[in-house]
Amino acid sequence: MNDKAENNLTDSVAYNNPKTGRFQPGNPGKPRGARTKFSQATLQEIVSMKDDAVAVLRNRIAAGDGDAARWVLERIVGKSARFVELSGVTPEAIGQDLQDGALTVDEAKDVALAVSRLAGIERIAQLEERLDELTRLLKGTSL
């Protein structure tokens, strides 16, 4: 091993425990659940495009283009995905579908996580709107 490679190895070892490979105390890494602004903005953009994407898919199917629809669906839900009709998206409805055998445990977990994330994005958008409204109101009045 050359000197440069050894220096790189010792530099990286200083940040990690050489036995476990985990971060040393004082260097915890990225906090759990932390998201970048990019991922939040991307998720919001995806949520805002859902109606357009469904409309395009409907038009393709109506035009008899099953291959295009299949291609889109395979990329969105995957080739091995199982389509399940849910009775609702509330925790109670997901639990009932799980009890009835319409959903596996993993599917119920995935559905619940997706619903939770979408609800969080919508709440963030609502809070941003309210904050903008409060800012406008405060600028309109003098303190």
Overview of the molecule:
This protein is 67% helix and 0% strand. With 143 residues, it is mostly helical.
Write the layout of secondary structure elements.
Blueprint: H1 3-15, H2 37-48, H3 50-62, H4 66-77, H5 91-100, H6 105-140
Counted by DSSP, the helix tally is 6
β-sheet strand percentage: under 5%
Q: Give the averaged pLDDT, no decimals.
A: 77
Based on CA atoms alone, the radius of gyration comes out at 24 Å
Relative helix content: 55-70%
**Number of strand segments:** 0
Give the CA-based shape.
extended
**What string gives the helices and strands in order?**
HHHHHH
Our measurement of the CA-to-CA distance between the termini, rounded to an integer number of angstroms, reads 68 Å
Q: What class would the helix/strand composition place it in?
A: mainly alpha
Q: Unreliable runs, pLDDT <50, ≥5 residues?
A: 5-13
The biggest beta sheet reads: none
Which features characterize this protein?
0% strand, 6 helices, mainly alpha
What is this entry, summarized?
The protein has 143 residues and is mainly α. 67% of the residues lie in helices and 0% in strands. The chain has 6 helices and no strands.
